[in-house]
Design goal:
This protein is α+β, with helices and mostly antiparallel strands and about 170 residues long. It contains two helices and seven strands. The protein has a seven-stranded antiparallel β-sheet. Strand 2 and strand 3 form a beta hairpin.
Length: about 170
């Protein structure tokens, strides 16, 4: 008798949990997930930004996109050139702690930008505000490869740029 009652309620629960799991997989794999600002926002409205921001950050813009194991993150904000330069290592340290990668990218100091940066943004991302090509003088840090952040700082205009992609 106990066995029959157990069968009567366990099967619907198993079917329900299985259907929820399949629905979650379809949602996770099949649909892109986005979080972005629709224009420059102040620090108080930059919820969801993928990196920590300095208290003096202004005109913040970010775009996060993810679908299954593909992802891209872009961040741009303005602050004093000194604040932007000091923030480069803070963001790399944050990335190292989140991704448990204490030795990567190398702990080298930021390097001078020697050529005008060009960034292939992809047509599916509306990030025309990520204008690294306008940097005439600045610094660069990070590795930039798959899953490794790249950071640029425009030391003339006081603009910080961050990109992470798979």
């Amino acid at each position: 008798m106990l066995d029959r009652r157990h069968k009567s309620w366990s099967r619907p629960i198993f079917v329900s949990v299985s259907l929820l799991f399949v629905a979650y997989l379809v949602w996770e794999i099949g649909f892109p997930h986005r979080d972005y600002t629709s224009g420059p926002v102040p620090l108080a409205e930059a919820n969801g930004c993928p990196i920590p921001l300095p208290g003096s950050a202004r005109n913040i813009q970010f775009y996060k996109w993810r679908q299954w194991n593909l992802f891209v993150e872009y961040v741009r904000f303005e602050a004093s050139p000194q604040e932007c330069l000091g923030h480069m290592q803070k963001v790399l340290e944050h990335w190292r702690s989140v991704f448990s990668a204490p030795d990567y990218p190398d702990h080298e100091p930021p390097k001078d930008i020697e050529e005008t940066p060009t960034e292939a943004l992809g047509e599916q991302f509306d990030v025309t505000w990520f204008d690294v090509q306008n940097i005439r003088k600045g610094k660069i840090a990070g590795g930039g490869g798959s899953g490794v952040p790249m950071i640029w700082v425009d030391t003339e205009r006081g603009v910080f740029y961050y990109r992470l992609t798979d």
